[in-house]
Amino acid sequence: MPAPTAPLRASTDTPADTVPLPTPEQDEELLLDAPEAVPSDPNTFQPPSSSSEDAEMVVDEEGRPRFAPGKDTESVRKSDIRKVPIPPHRMSPLKSQWSKIYVPLVQHLKLQVRMNVHSKCVELRSSKHTESPAALQSGVDFVHAFAMGFDVDDAVALVRVPELYIETFEIKDVKTLSGEHLARAIGRIAGKDGKTKFAIENASRTRIVLADSKISILGSFKNIHMARESIVSLILGKPPGKVYNSLRTVSARMKERF
What we know:
Largest sheet: 3 strands, antiparallel
Distance between the termini: 128 Å
Strand content: 5-15%
Helix content: 40-55%
Order of helices and strands: HHHEEEHHEEHHHEHHHEEHH
Strand order of the largest sheet: 3-5-4
CATH topology of the largest domain: Ribosomal Protein S8, Chain: A, domain 1
CATH superfamily of the largest domain: K Homology domain, type 1
Radius of gyration: 39 Å
Number of strands: 8
């Protein structure tokens, strides 16, 4: 016959790895005494004290603090993509001159370039090999100048010379003309066989593209100003002879300065 078993009772003994919860009074005492109760372990993180910061700070004779020179950190460059739309009448010149267009973009600016025939645009993208942060904008300006009608040899100057710009305006911005009056104004700007336009380009050291009533000028700031004044005078009806005389005077002054 088996021995009778003792009735089950709740054990009052707590295991060795468990700690009883403190009472509210003990909890407040622990919170108040927490800084003293934390053991000083060298492996635990301790914030630097103000005395160490004061010891490292160097003060000059005038009482101003001297700080250590900053260290150059390599900035993380993200690849950016720009698309330059090409007009339909410039797609054929783009295809024929593509071997001259992508060379300065890839070799000089270190950009990734492709011609998208379906969307009729040129896509430019910067990469880890791109050195200058302004290389992408220079490439966009170069392709945009070619799309406006400038030759590749003239537009590539935007990549190599940072002081060159492009200014575009229309004849209606100067004077409202229509019909035959507009055609005569365009003829005065171009001249017979383009002689007037060439004379303005040579005197002002700029390049001019005359596309219908839209005029684009490539050059430096002062040279663009001189060429624009001559074109505005022709639009307003000034005889080409007087424009030539003023161009000779201004170009002579520019040669004296140089």
